[in-house]
Amino acid sequence: MDALSWDGTLTSRDFLVSARAFAEKWKEFNSAFPPWTWVPCPPKQPPCHLPQLLQQGYLSLEKICLPGSSKKGHVTSQEDVDEISLTEGEEEFEPVDNATLVETNNSLQVCYYDFHIVYSDSYRVPVLYFRGYYIDGQPLALDEIEKDLPACSAKVLLESKWTFITQEEHPYLNRPWYKLHPCGTSEWMKLLFLSDDSRAKIGVAVEQYLVSWLSVVGQVVGIRIPFEMLNNPKSCN
Amino acid sequence: MEGSSGKSILQFAPFQSSVDEGFWHRLSSLKLNKFGIDDSPIPITGFYAPCSHSQVSNHLTLLAESLPSDSSEESEVPEISRGNRNRCSVPGILYNTNTVERFHGLDKQGLLKAEAQKIWEDIHNGRALEDSSVLSRFLLISFADLKKWSFHYWFAFPALVLDPPATLVNLRPASQCFSLEEAESLSAAFNEWRNSSLTADVPFFLVQIDTNSHAAIKHLKDWETCQSADGHKLLFGFYDPCHLPNNPGWPLRNFLALICSRWDIKSVHFLCYRENRGFADLGLSLVGEALITVPQGWRDHPYVPNAVGWELNKGRKIPRGISLAKSMDPTRLAISAADLNLKLMRWRALPSLNLNSLSSLKCLLLGAGTLGCQVARTLMAWGVRRITLVDNGRVAMSNPLRQSLYTLDDCLNGGELKATAAVNSLKRIFPAVEAKGVVMAIPMPGHPVPSQEEQTVLDDCRSLHDLIDSHDVVFLLTDTRESRWLPSLLCANTNKITITAALGFDSFLVMRHGAGPFSSSHDSKAEAANSLSADMSNLGLTDRDGGKRLGCYFCNDVVAPIDSTSNRTLDQQCTVTRPGLAPIASALAVELLVGILHHPHGIFAEGDVLNSSNSESSEQPLGILPHQIRGSLAQFSQMTLVGHSSDSCTACCSTVVSEYRKKGMEFILQAINHPTYLEDLTGLTELMKSASSFELDWDDGTDEDDDDCVEV
Ligand SMILES: [Zn+2]
């Protein structure tokens, strides 16, 4: 692809190629971190007489404990749960068992994050979906997530008026997840590739797309890309 | 535990639960679409993995896949793939009750005992050797409150109680228990076991280390063969979810029960397998020795040992609760979707769009017919959330086709009141709307009332006055000209933003009324109350200096509003309009409002016309802000016009407004009862004698015939 005439978007086939390359590289340069895995999804409509569609799916990185994402003494937001019916008084139905360890110290409250990279057919770019939850499964609200986001995140969100967090239905899970809205992605991706002379010369490497993309998007949510991954644009060709 | 004295009781860290949001989503969907009120127990699958963090224990996790598929077609591919090293399947059972009372009334001890019995039987019939995951069988009770999207739940991880309890001889990090060679071989064996899809999710196993320091991991069913070799170290290993350095995790309990009842071993060497970054971590893993006394009665088959295992909630024996209203309540989802839509519009095209002013804006719609319905919908699309509809009619059979808030159901049994039906419909479209319906007739000039009805009419006048007072914007959308008179006057008096839409057969008029004649005076309540334009009073003054207020609907008139319905044929009442007209006019009316709200001068903004020399307004983000828009479907044309206020206007001139201020209801009664009162008062009578006609600067003179008929 010629970088100058390129509009910053990606076809779904290219996304697949780029996703595979990205997951491989991640494993290569970031082995201490859990791997990104490709989650295949059956197409929503049976592919009847249409030509067989590309394999659909998304990249997934789950149960990530972001640095600093532990909360002390989290108060479960049981806002709508009827407290009275939960705490009707303790029930003494079990014999005392002295082989059961009774933990006295309230151990560290840990929050986990799940990240999915999903291809958007309408914007023709990858979209980062994410969610956070306490270790017992209670989801984190956006304001709680914002407290976990790295300090540079607010800056990125502010500077790029196209990058903002919205809550929308996850295209495959059909539940609301947070996402970084993709409406400016193609523009800044184009700028990103054009600003790099060497890349502008060799053309746009599809394999490198997701690495470059996540190097920007990751800043918002605190996913760091190893430097070697960025600096190694051609290793997959 | 006091050191390794050999006397301390072996204490196990309880299993902890984690329930993914997706589990509750699927349970709700199954409950609604498949189970109904059937509350029989449901087999479910939990997932766990060895502890992989020195500070955090691994939890037994329920995911959407823990439940049967909720799609109607049976999925061909089994959803739970075996062999996932991070998702060892554990069988469980779910008792989901239909009421919170049933939830609390469940026989918890009995349910736990029933599950413990299954474990006990699997130990004795050997099934636990084939599929060791049954040793960690669990139980979940729940009540899903689908109206509030809240879930009450309680896990139990049944553990067979050894009586007397096992005692601990010693417990150390595994790294201290093996030679270097052994440790190396052991780590390699573990990594192989964990990376093979055949064994990765097998949570209980045997660890054999031969005299050559060679380690091997074996299935439980291979126990007999492991026994035969001499000089071998044999350890009973399991995936330990617990991270604690001095306690093994819960799964060891039933493992010990199996070991002692099947193999009759008194001194058990066990290994708590834990890992780090996907590899065996012998520093985190523990090796210990426990002494077991086979409890009395364990050899008698019908006997089932006691069991414990209900999970505590912050140290207390109470259930847990979770609310997912944020992600499941359709109303909340609709709100956030609607907000997002508007925010996108702001982000992409209109950075100055003031969404808060729209969502807090109170709009009064007089009339809930074709125009009222359509205006209400368009207002909601712009993010307006507070809408009051005034109408005293009922939905007729012919209405639903043109009046977009009604359906045939609203017409049955004599027809629902439009004010009521419209509000219900708005709430169905967008549950978060704050819509109110007011059933009220609008008093009209020239429609004399008998004295016994005077009180009712005056009450209506006062109600209308209060309604206008308590709203920010008034839309005049009634189907007669004279029903617009009183609201026009009241709006001029309180200086409210007022928008009129009126229809002919194929032409329409949409206009905003100018500010009232006393809008700059300091006693004007509306001015102080109106927060939409902060420096309104200043503007009012300059406007007064300029002397040119924009006109109202009646400023165009040379005749005072009279009873237009009584002496006309149906045709002339203009109830016949081209169906596309009302949506066009309604949409323009709302867009005009949004323009006013975003104009720095608000209600005082001058009227722009296309190609206006007034460049200030054309640079507004929303474009020009016209005073009047007239359109004709016959010519598919539309034009913007400006008409200034008339000194003899029967609704907004200073004579009329000050007369109203002076005499109040008495003035209104006179206007209602005496057809020429208003004309006499404003000098219109005089004017009519001299003037043949008075028109606005409407270039196109060919299509004026329905001008006096611009109503529904
Ligand atoms: Zn007027």
From TrEMBL, chain A:
CC per GO annotation: phagophore assembly site
Keywords attached to this entry: Autophagy, Transferase, Ubl conjugation pathway
Ranges in a coiled coil: none
Transmembrane in keyword set: no
A GO biological-process term: nucleophagy
PANTHER family referenced in this protein's UniProt entry, alphabetically: UBIQUITIN-LIKE-CONJUGATING ENZYME ATG10
Family note: Belongs to the ATG10 family.
Protein's recorded name: Ubiquitin-like-conjugating enzyme ATG10
TrEMBL record, chain B:
Active-site residues from the entry: 574
A GO CC annotation given for this chain: cytoplasm
InterPro entries per record: Atg7 (IPR006285), Atg7_N (IPR032197), Atg7_N_1 (IPR042522), Atg7_N_2 (IPR042523), ThiF/MoeB/HesA (IPR045886), ThiF_NAD_FAD-bd (IPR000594), Ubiquitin-activating_enz (IPR035985)
Single annotated GO MF: Atg12 activating enzyme activity
One BP annotation, GO: piecemeal microautophagy of the nucleus
Principal localisation: cytoplasm
Ranges where the THIF-type NAD/FAD binding fold domain occurs: 345-600
Domain Ubiquitin-like modifier-activating enzyme Atg7 N-terminal: 10-328
Origin superkingdom: Eukaryota
Subcellular location as annotated: Cytoplasm; Preautophagosomal structure
Annotated SUPFAM superfamilies: Activating enzymes of the ubiquitin-like proteins
Keyword annotations from UniProtKB, A to Z: Autophagy, Cytoplasm, Protein transport, Transport, Ubl conjugation pathway
Subunit structure: Homodimer.
Family of the protein in this entry: Belongs to the ATG7 family.
Function of the molecule: E1-like activating enzyme involved in the 2 ubiquitin-like systems required for autophagy.
Annotated protein name in UniProt: Ubiquitin-like modifier-activating enzyme ATG7
Top-level taxonomy: Eukaryota, Viridiplantae, Streptophyta, Embryophyta, Tracheophyta
